Amino acid sequence: MPETTPTGPLKGLRVLDLTRVLAGPTCTQMLADLGADVIKIEKPGSGDDTRGFAPPRMPGTDESAYFVGVNRNKRSVTLDIAAPEGQQLARALIAECDILVENFKVGALSKYGLGYEQLHADVPRLIYCSITGFGQTGPYAPRPGYDSLIQAMGGVMSLTGEPDGLPQKVGVPVADLFAGLYGCIGILAALRHRDATGEGQQIDIGMLDTHVAWLANQGMNYLATGENPPRLGNQHPNIVPYQVFPTADGHMVLSIGNDPTFKRFCEAFALTHLLADGRFATNAARVENRQLVTDTLTPVMQTHPTLWWVERLEALKIGCGPINKLSEVFADPQVVARGMVREMTHAAGVDVKVIANPVRLSATPADYRLPPPLLGQHTDAVLAERLGLDPAAIAALRAKGVV
Known about the structure:
The two termini are 19 Å apart. The radius of gyration is 25 Å and the shape is elongated. It is built from 17 helices and 11 strands. The chain is of the alpha/beta class. Helix content is 38%, strand content 14%.
């Protein structure tokens, strides 16, 4: 059993995690944080690819920071699913599970007898979540999916960057992360359906689908006009001024979301003459004249340092903020107060810092019971607990390279 008993709302659910890298592990870590017992299946000898994504490594361990970031609250079992005995063990573990999450290429698991249709017949209550680059259907279904590729094909790179610069990807792997979170949402919906009907189902998550889904207002702007939105750098397509401005000592974000707020801003900083100018009077006019608004406000914002502006704008309830480096993010009083960094004692005997789960449940909060595991750390315990294998049987499997 896990070293500590889960306390979250998904306590009692059993998950087999056949994922690696980021999209799938993001999904399964969310389930694990909320109390599910997640068994992470890894290839003997190498494990999840991200174990090797270093430097950096977590201080005092041999584990990459990348792996540690999305694999807490999981138990690691090494299992070669390409071997017939490994497939038998996998099916036996699946028979005891509520949820299977995988991010193999389309059809890859069917070669091992672990495809959805193959398992559904024997385990009809199983919820089977597949996360791939392009989904289970369509002309691109066989292709592998990578975050930067999806950001490019999904349109966000055409929207990101300076107007006269290159298209830019987002600085964190948002295509992977959104796919993992949408997968988790789908699993929770499927659990609700299974509670009502007793039936499991497959959840088909395509990274390109989820990427298109979160184009949000920019996607809708295109559908409304038929025109490709331009790259606007740090400006907003529908609201002005809502952007980065230089200050006397750096840069900051000014977010004026409506006309009454713009009026307060102008009145507070001796800019009331702008309110009488039709080019500034409404948000629609400011969007139409965004360069004029930017050119007019830039020298105003440069008259004082960032902190001066933040203190006065916050007092006026006008959206604003500094542009923090990560050192400043993790030292921010709000981030500290919300406990967004936790420490967990790693198997190497040192405490490692992890970023906390942001979902705050009043009665059943996320817990932090298991640190990110060593490769195969829980193989013997899980095979004994779930399948009743004795030490000799496990040793024989290990000698064959099955575990």
